[in-house]
Amino acid sequence: MVDIIATTTTTGTSSGWKSGAGTATYCPIKATVTLVGSTGTAWATDAIKKISASILTDSDGYKITLAVGRQNGTKLVSTNNEGGCLIHTNSGAVCFRGAISSTAILTGMKATWIKLADYKIGALVAGTEITAAKWGIVYDPICNVTTTPVTTACGATFIVADATVTYGGSWYQPKETAKKTYTTLPRFSVKETAKWTAITQAATKQAVSFACGSGKALTGASALVAGAAVAFGAAALAF
User: Fold this and answer.
1) Angle CA(219)–CA(65)–CA(115) in degrees, nearest 5?
2) Domains held by the chain: number
3) What is the pLDDT of residues 98-133, one digit of tens each?
4) In which domain, by residue range, is 110 found?
5) pTM above 0.90, yes or no
6) Distance of CA 219 to CAs 92, 105, 157, Å?
7) Which of 40, 99, 178, 227 is deepest in the core (most CB within 10 A)?
């Protein structure tokens, strides 16, 4: 049985970032995780099963949504990269990475999972793609493919200096295990701590290089895992 989690809200600012090694440049202003539990099988609608035929075998309907602010809310230019990883302390990481094209469009955004043993700060690990066919992932905005015309949220809206712009997506998580450890896609749950690490902007690297705070306990349906200032008390991160 998964938890049905009540809604909480928090707000973040860029004032609390760790200093040094360009961390303030690459970390998002905030990264928000939303967890929604389900009971029974009604959540797996015909539309979902048409895309993810084995979803009821793989998942119990515990859905995660990730919305990550742009790197420090600053303007991005061609050859920059955007992204980072949500770290599960026992089971690995989920990473989003995409490039800013020569025409200043976020393209090829891809979500992958990486085993804990393979995840390394300062390295580029390809990981395994989180697909719609397996986990029902939906990107928001849809910057994983190039559309015609270009999705505004991946182009003109995304690259400007704007603290409110986000990228990410939602997907169904693996069925809960007794030990709460997972050898493939991690499952993030209430009362666990999630951390965010940011990638470099270098066009040839996309390496995960900067730890953005010490993490946040997922205590509600919506929990801030990066960017909260100390003034927010129980919701704050330790930097």
Assistant:
1) 85
2) 1
3) 888 877 788 889 999 999 888 887 777 889 999 999
4) 23-234
5) no
6) 20, 35, 32
7) 227
214-230 residue pLDDT tens: 778 886 555 666 654 32
Distance in angstroms (rounded) separating the CA atoms of residues 98 and 109: 4
- In this predicted structure, what is the pLDDT of residue 179? 83
Closest among 161, 127, 124, 157 to 142, alpha carbons compared: 157
Q: Where are the alpha helices (DSSP H) in the chain?
A: 23-26, 46-51, 55-58, 132-135, 156-159
Q: What is the dihedral of CA 109, 53, 188, 29, to 10 degrees?
A: 20
Tell me the per-residue pLDDT of 59-98, one tens digit each, with 9 for 90 and over: 999 999 998 887 766 677 777 788 889 998 888 999 999 8
What is the residue whose two structure tokens read 């603290």? 163
